[in-house]
Every structure is written in C-alpha cells, then in structure tokens.
Design goal:
Mean pLDDT: 95
Low-confidence stretches: none
Number of domains: 2
Strand order of the largest sheet: 1-2-3
Radius of gyration: 18 Å
Distance between the termini: 19 Å
CATH topology of the largest domain: GMP Synthetase, Chain A, domain 3
CATH superfamily of the largest domain: K homology (KH) domain
Shape: elongated
CATH class of the largest domain: Alpha Beta
Structural class: alpha+beta
Strand content: 15-25%
Largest sheet: 3 strands, antiparallel
Order of helices and strands: EEEHEEHH
Number of helices: 3
Length: 129
C-alpha cells in the first residue's frame, strides 16, 4: 500500500490513496481551521469502522439483521505523553438480537486488524530522499 501525503496550506495535510483523498486539519485551538478531522480522530475512527466491519459481517454471515446495530467509541484522556489511555467500544444491539450471539459478536469485534496492529506495532522506517 502506498499513499502520497501532501500539504494543502495552513495545518491541512491530505493523503491520496487509490484515487481517493483523505483530508485532515487541526482544530482551531491547535492552529488549524477545523475544516476536517484531525489525524488522531481519523485513527480512532479507523478502529471503530474496522470493528464495525467485523460486527456487520458476522451478522450478515448468520442472516442476523444489522438494522439498529451501532458502535460507540470513546477515548479517555491520558495523564501522560500519549493522547489516550483507554479506548472503549460499545456495541449497541437491538433487543431482539439473538442471545447466543452476544458474546461471539464481541469476540469477532476484537479481531479488528487496526486494533491488532496497535497491539503489535510495526517497525517504522522514516528517511529523506
């Protein structure tokens, strides 16, 4: 996978990937215009959307309706150098969701590849050319 990262003025940094553009900015408090999500918010969103894919696929494979299923992701502010100490994901299931699948859907949600990458981070190689 290759992405081109480029500056669009101010605090806006964009990523071009596979014909798509991912736009980021900083909040007004951080010197940006607040026009687009901050990179950290996009990283958190990628965890949530990745988890959602696993949850929705699990349901689709078992012919369980996905209507009414929502995921809520929250972070807790960190007391140290990192932006957050805890990420909590709540999977809201409809009342008629089959009881026998409540624990398995949590196990499947834990399979999110973005989460796994954070738990076992890759080596970073950064250089100039």
């Amino acid at each position: 996978m290759e992405m081109r990262i480029y500056h669009e003025g101010g605090m806006q940094v964009f990523a071009s990937y596979n014909g798509l553009t991912i736009k980021t900015d900083q909040s007004i408090e951080s010197g940006g215009e607040g026009k687009y999500p901050e990179p950290f918010a996009l990283m958190i969103a990628s965890i949530g959307t990745c988890t959602g894919i696993y949850v929705y696929r699990f349901c689709q494979e078992r012919d369980i309706p996905t209507e009414g299923i929502e995921l809520y992701l929250n972070t807790e502010e960190s007391s140290g150098q990192k932006p957050t100490d805890t990420i909590t994901i709540e999977i809201k299931l409809p009342a008629d969701f089959p009881e026998k699948y409540r624990k398995p859907v949590v196990r499947v949600a834990n399979m999110c590849s973005v989460k796994k990458l954070m738990l076992d981070p890759p080596e970073f190689n950064i250089f100039t050319s």
